[in-house]
Every structure is written in structure tokens, then in C-alpha cells.
Amino acid sequence: MKNEGFIIREFQLKDLDRVLYINRTTLPENYPPFFFVEHYRSFPKAFLVAELNGEVVGYVMCRVEYGRSLVGERFIVKKGHVISLAVLPEARRRGIGTALMKRAMEAMKNVYKVSEYYLEVRKSNTPAISLYRKLGFKTVNIIPRYYHNGEDAYLMARTANS
Ligand code: ACO
Ligand code: ZN
């Protein structure tokens, strides 16, 4: 049954190597260790990991930014940017990705007071796109050749108050 057997908790520095490993083995967008540490220091409540049987199997890392609203009328808003989400293949399809996203969205809204969330995702990344759609994200723009290999990104966004 979904939502059983795993826990979601805040990232700690002891998780860094494991998170780097998950990032490198699941995503083409890889970042140096300091990038993760900076996000942890700046937005610790929105950097979460999932543990399954005592092992970290997934993470979500976010950032809070000011910028043009992607979903509303107000010009400049506080936005929660989902930088990176990943779950190891053997731990997928049990609701971990969804739980990570929900907890991160809650923290961005309640702790960092964002009024909307956004992220970029490869046009070909059907699993992630369908997860985001289920969470209420809509495609608000296409960013041509966003990725190194020339692939376009969907810019997806959602308000934080629904
Ligand atoms: N095919 C189709 N739909 C899928 C798939 C799939 N392979 N995987 C997930 N979904 C959709 C389904 O609708 C699913 O609901 P269901 O299982 O009831 O059908 C829903 O997403 C939720 O799935 P979860 O179990 O919560 O998600 P999971 O823990 O499997 O993690 C994730 C999904 C994070 C996208 C995982 O597949 C992954 O790590 N992929 C590689 C890394 C990646 O692409 N990350 C996102 C990049 S974009 C960014 O980081 C901002
Ligand atoms: Zn981004």
C-alpha cells in the first residue's frame, strides 16, 4: 500500500554523499557538492530526503526566489523553485516522489511564505510530468533548448493557495 515503509525527513549533512549518488545515477543534471550544501544552508526546511528501510532513496531540493508571477496577476512574488527531485529506481512507484513534493511544497508555503511553486522538466520526462500534473502543476511555458542535449523544458507552475 502507498505511503507505507518510508519516512520523509529534512536533509542533514551526513546525507550529502548519498544524495550526490542519487543525483548522479538518476539525472543528467548534476551539481557539485557545494550547490547542495548552499541550498541546505539557505532553505533547510525545503531540502528533504526519503528513507526506505533505513536508507536514503530519494531527495527533493528547493530554493525560494523573488520574481515575476507565473500563475497570478501580481507582478513580483515569492516563488518556490523545485530544483531537483529524484528517487532511486528500485524505490519508485510507492508514492515517495509525491510525498517528497508535498512536504517540500508545505514547507515552502508555511515556512518561507511562497505564493506559488515552479519547476522545469524535460518534455520527454513522462513520469515526472505526470507526477507534477497530479499535484496540480500546469505547463505555463516551454523553454527551448533548455538542456545540454538541446531538449526543451516545460516550465510548470502552481499556486500555493489551493
Ligand atoms: N510512468 C508513468 N507515470 C509515472 C511513472 C512512470 N514510470 N512514475 C511515476 N508516475 C506518475 C504516476 O502518475 C504516479 O502515480 P501512480 O503510481 O499512482 O500511477 C505518480 O507519478 C506518482 O508517483 P510516485 O510513486 O509518487 O513517484 P516516484 O517515487 O516513482 O518518483 C520520479 C517519481 C521522482 C519522477 C522518479 O521517477 C525519478 O526519480 N525519476 C528520475 C529523476 C527525475 O526525472 N526527476 C525529476 C526531474 S525534474 C526536476 O527535478 C524539477
Ligand atoms: Zn529549475
Helical run tally: 4
- Provide the succession of SSEs: EHHEEEHEHEE
CATH superfamily name? Answer: Gcn5-related N-acetyltransferase (GNAT)
> CATH topology, what is it called?
Aminopeptidase
Strand and helix layout:
Blueprint: E1 6-10, H1 16-26, H2 33-42, E2 47-52, E3 55-68, E4 76-87, H3 96-110, E5 116-122, H4 126-134, E6 138-143, E7 153-159
Parallel strand pairs: 4-5
Antiparallel strand pairs: 1-2, 2-3, 3-4, 5-7, 6-7
Acetyl coenzyme *A (ACO) binds next to strand 4, helix 3, strand 5 and helix 4.
Walkthrough of the structure:
This protein is an alpha+beta fold and 162 residues long. The chain has one domain: Gcn5-related N-acetyltransferase (GNAT) (Aminopeptidase, 3-Layer(aba) Sandwich), CATH 3.40.630.30. The chain is 28% helix and 35% strand. It is built from four helices and seven strands. It has helices spanning 16-26, 33-42, 96-110, 126-134; strands at 6-10, 47-52, 55-68, 76-87, 116-122, 138-143, 153-159. A seven-stranded mixed sheet has the order 1-2-3-4-5-7-6. It is globular. 30% of the residues are buried. The mean pLDDT is 95. Acetyl coenzyme *A binds at residues 26-27, 82, 84-87, 92-98, 119, 121, 125-128, 130-131, 134.
